[in-house]
Amino acid sequence: MIELRGISKVYRQGGREVSALQDVSLRVDPGEVFGVLGQSGAGKSTLIRCVNLLERPTQGRVRVNGKELLSLNPDELRLARQGIGMIFQHFNLFSSQTVAANVAYPLEVAGLPREQIRARVAELLSLVGLSDKADTYPSRLSGGQKQRVGIARALAPRPRILLSDEATSSLDPETTRSVLALLRDLNRQLGLTILLITHQMEVVKAICDSVAVLEQGRLVEQGKVVELLSRPGSHLHGLCYPPFTTGESAVLRGGQRVELSLSGEHSTRPILSTLARRFDVDAHLLEGSLERVGEARVGRLLFELTGAPDAVSQALAFLREQGLTSEEAAHAW
User: What role does this protein play (predicted)?
Assistant: First the structure.
C-alpha cells in the first residue's frame, strides 16, 4: 500500500522558489495498478520519486508498506527500499555488463551467495522471456528487451511495489503493448502493486485500475479508470474523448440529440433498438465508439431521438432509470 498525504515539493533555484508539487494526496491499494497521468512539467516524476524518497518532499507524509518513510533512519530506509522496485524510461543498464550481470547487480549489492544469485537471475530472465539473452550485452538488445531487463533487475530483491517512471514512452506502439502486457501479468502472478507515471492516455486505458491526473503540480482528479471514463463531466473523460464533431447538417429529421456514455453490461445491450420498440421513437446514430479498457468495455454514442414529444421524454427518462449517463444536447430543429 502507498499513501501520500499533503505532498508538496519546492525547489530553490538562483534565489527563487519553484513549486513542483502542491498538496498532493493519493492512495494506492495493495495489488492495484495505479497510473499518474499528466503532461511534461506536471510533476509526475517528482511525485513518483517521493514514494521511495529519491526526492524528499518539502512537506507531507509518505507511507509505504505500513511504514512512515520520512521517519526512518538511513539504515531503515535502505531496508524499506528493498521492497520498492523501480524501472526507468531510459533503462539505466550497465553497457559493459551482460544481461545476467545487470539483473544480478542488486543481489550482489545485498551480499547474497553466488549460487542464490545465479538461480534468481535465471528465474527472472525466464519470467520476462529473456532466458536466451543472459550472456548478451545491452547494445545488442532492442528497446523492448532492454526494458524487460530493467524490469527483471527491479524485481530481483522480491519487492512488493514496482514504480514505473515513463517506462514505455520511448518505445514503439507494438513494443509498448508487449511491455504493458508483461507488467499486467506480473501484477497478477506476483501480486505486485504497480504505480506508474505516463503522459500517454493509451497506457492508462490498457493497464491501470485507478488513475490520478496531475496538472502543474496539482492533483485535479483521481478514481477508478472505468468510472471516470464513463462520466462525461470528469477530467479524464474530457482528455480521452474530445467533443463529437458531427454538425447539424448530419441530422436526419431534427429532434433531440443525446450523448450516452456506456460501460460494463450496458455496453453490450441493444439500446437503440430497445428505445425504438418500447417507446415508438426513432434513434438515428450520428457518431460513436466502443473500446476495451482493461477488463471492461467503455464507449459513448451520439444519436438523435425523433418522435412524439411525450415518447421522446419517456425514452430519456428510461435511459436515466437504467443508470446510463444521458447528456441531452440542444434540440436540432
Answer: Part of the ABC transporter FtsEX involved in cellular division. Important for assembly or stability of the septal ring.
